[in-house]
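General statements about sequence and structure are easier to judge against a single worked case. In the encoding step, the backbone of a single protein was reduced to a row of integers, each denoting a local shape. The record that follows shows the chain in one-letter code together with its fold in token form.
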Amino acid sequence: MNAVAESAVHSERRLIAPLWHTVLLIAVLFGIAAYGASMQRHAPTGPQLVERTGSALPLYLSLIVAEWALLRFVTAGGLKRTGTRLRDLLGERWGSWRDVARDVAIALAVWAAWGLVEMAASRILGPDSAKDISAMLPRGPAEIAAWIALSLTAGFCEETIFRGYLQRQFLALTGSAPLAVLIQGVIFGVAHGYQGLRNVITITVFGMLFGALALWRSSLKPGMVLHAWTDIFSGIFARR
């Protein structure tokens, strides 16, 4: 094995943050999921839910703040302690518009294929166990703009946290790329526990798909585009 290859292997197996930091991050993610699941159990159903009053802007803005706070916890609380930079997680840079177009095309192709898989999964797994959250989706120009901002934030922050930080960390811990993809995917799915069991399963598979995409491209950018677009589409177009 030459020096370059040895350096690459060593880099993959080097922890990018202290182990205690990873454990704490997972605990925070699961705590947020547990809180969301609790709110779901006490949420109104039927006509009470459909007749939402007031604006969803405070909710969207608080979620945006929470996403960036988690990312800050990862970068300043974890990566900084090992000298790892955010750009190290993001992967290959876009050098031209051709690079941008390539990753966007990859993201849209995966999104189209995933739509077929999701339809099949819905038939197999049956109805969702979570209460309807359609009333929380955007209404009007201001909420739509905030939803797009939230979707872009989730695309950047969650891909960095799950596929950048956690996947790289579990790759270093296990020495196995498939296992790292699997573990972060499960954590990603459980972190969305408030959406019900069926969605936890499908989101886990989606998280693994994001992880495989990041591994294949050596970059988080296609996954970020895919993640953001999926959220934008589901909130604005899918229900109309």
Summary: The chain has ten helices and no strands. Residues 15-39+57-237 form one domain.
